[in-house]
Amino acid sequence: MITSLHFAAAITAGLSICIDEIVKPIPRKRFGQNFLIDQQIIAAIIQAIRPTSGDLLVEIGPGLAALTRPLQQVLGHLHVVEVDRDIVAHLHREFTEEQLTIHSADALKFDFSQWGNRVRIVGNLPYNISTPLLFHLGQFCMHILDMHFMLQKEVVERMVAMPSTPEYGRLSVMLQNRFEMEQILLVPADCFRPIPKVQSAIVRMLPLEHSVVPIEQTPLFSKVVTAAFSQRRKTLRNTLRGFLNGDDFRALALDAGLRAENLSVAQFAAITNYLKENNG
């Protein structure tokens, strides 16, 4: 049986298909496309994902199939979601239906719950839609086994940031409410064509068994977090004045002079629970 390690070795030995030898679609700026071409990085990503035969794996934005090819070699079959029709046509020419199921669709509107609750998702996410796409995927966390994404390095740093650090913000809180995350690999800009102006990184996302805030309270939680970070330099006394008064801060044992960046996910959850209990 071919394993991810065997295939990674094949890549580094130069036995894989050279991407530069394929007639490629032109990268489209409006889709935020930068195509991964570095074979050593591709091998490292495959090793990090650790695909095994029988996995139900979905790739978002396959592009020129840099990850699709090694994944398909290990899995035999996988699903891809791609919005660019030229790339969809390119994939149809290269892969058979037995190898690849191609969903010509916008990932921001795609239903990732259709395969049950053991879905693995990977992708080189377009930088221009990475945040809304991550929030969209958060809706399906109960269906997902794990996710591995390549993103702008600064975005990954914000995702995994701890309280009281400059990178910690709304994205950190909203995602850490549902996922355990870690940055696992840095990807230099020269690994892409065209070369982007930013560095990239790979993040691993594992859904928590239970989100910190109950699913039904997510809309209120989101409103509180958004308000708190709406003016980062102002204190909670100002940013949350529409939610909490002095008595409320005392009941929560929360210093109203703190800023949003100083609160943990658990503290934002406590505010949400308090509001739910006291205001219906």
Q: Could you characterize the architecture of this molecule?
A:
This protein has eleven helices and nine strands. It has helices at 4-12, 39-49, 68-75, 85-94, 130-138, 153-160, 170-176, 218-228, 236-239, 246-251, 265-279, and strands at 35-36, 56-60, 78-82, 100-104, 119-124, 144-152, 179-187, 192-193, 200-207. Helix 8 (218-228) crosses helix 11 (265-279). It is elongated. The chain has 280 residues and is of the alpha/beta class. The strands form two sheets. It has a seven-stranded mixed beta sheet with strand order 4-3-2-5-6-9-7. The chain has two domains: 4-207, 3-Layer(aba) Sandwich (Rossmann fold), CATH 3.40.50.150; 215-279, Helicase, Ruva Protein, domain 3. The termini are far apart. Mean pLDDT is 88; it is low at 7-22 and 26-32. Strand 3, helix 4 (85-94) and strand 4 (100-104) form a beta-alpha-beta unit.
